[in-house]
């Protein structure tokens, strides 16, 4: 019921510290007519209903505690959150307001089993009660402290008829694809981690993707955001990564989450891995963007066609900045030449194993000088022999390279006498 919302909202702020992200409300068009439920949807709905009925007499009403083990304690919203999650359908929230923004709106005349029904007992335009339709004009719900879980006729009391607000269909929208895709598996892996101890943000993302044999090369949230292909909020798909700043005015990503589809996401926090929805104002205010590591066919996306340009642009943007030094100091842009290449690649989600040119030059694919592409790495000697590698640069196209010199970061031709005499090899990591 309504009084659970204040406690849940508080929990969000305790868990996420200074974050507050609102998300644009993308209301679905009401369904004009109900299509017959598919076999998979009907089977899933029957499973949900069976589990809900099994809990009759086993749980008590509570708006202050969400207890997932016997003796169970639920509010109306946590009750539904629990039974849906039991069958791998994650509502992502136990806030009635946010639940009512998921799935597709359906008319009362076109209800199907598994639909969510919302009521506004306070007549203030906001839902304070939710139940699940089970067919035959009935719903199952955690009613109140007197009745606990019960089955009610949705037309049997004036409360249900006078305060009825809306119905939302979340099946099959919140279900896995058939057959289950790699994106589904990534999201399911993330949901399987709910309430576990939180790993460091980037480490958590890497571990979830690695379970599907997907390698994520990033050492920071910022470099993670520069991985893959950027996507708009309107184009989000399961398995995408979404990013948020530490405040509503920050442009630097501080937290990453795995997008679960239908505005849901799985977020590693200091209090464990949590399920959230983008509708929460805290997240909407701090939303910075999203990136996609999976292609439409759910395989690991080939990102070279976009990332090569990003790397070249990152390098070009630094021309005239920085200073030569033997310390690796990103905050002051102080680098050796190979430290510079390491930094630019890390900013774009690729971790080179070393800040020494000779070591870097042994990695990646060897590329001939005639086949250079933007983002390739160039390695040079300093003695005019082209053998003892001591220098590194980034090729940015049009026979130009950007590199760290004693005068700072400069852009110059790869056809200068020095470059031609000292060129040793070129490597591609994309």
From TrEMBL:
Q: Which InterPro entries match?
A: NLP_P60_dom, Papain-like_cys_pep_sf, Peptidase_C40
A Pfam family that this protein carries is NLPC_P60
NlpC/P60 domain sequence ranges: 42-171, 305-430
Q: Which UniProt keywords are listed?
A: Hydrolase, Protease, Signal, Thiol protease
The answer to whether UniProt assigns keyword Glycoprotein to this entry is: no
What highest taxon heads this organism's lineage? Bacteria
Signal peptide location in the record? 1-27
Instruction: Extract the coiled-coil ranges from the record.
Output: none
Asked whether the UniProt record includes Protease among its keywords, one would answer: yes
> What family does the database annotate?
Belongs to the peptidase C40 family.
Question: What is the protein name for this chain?
Answer: NlpC/P60 family protein
What organism is this sequence from?
Answer: Pontibacillus salicampi
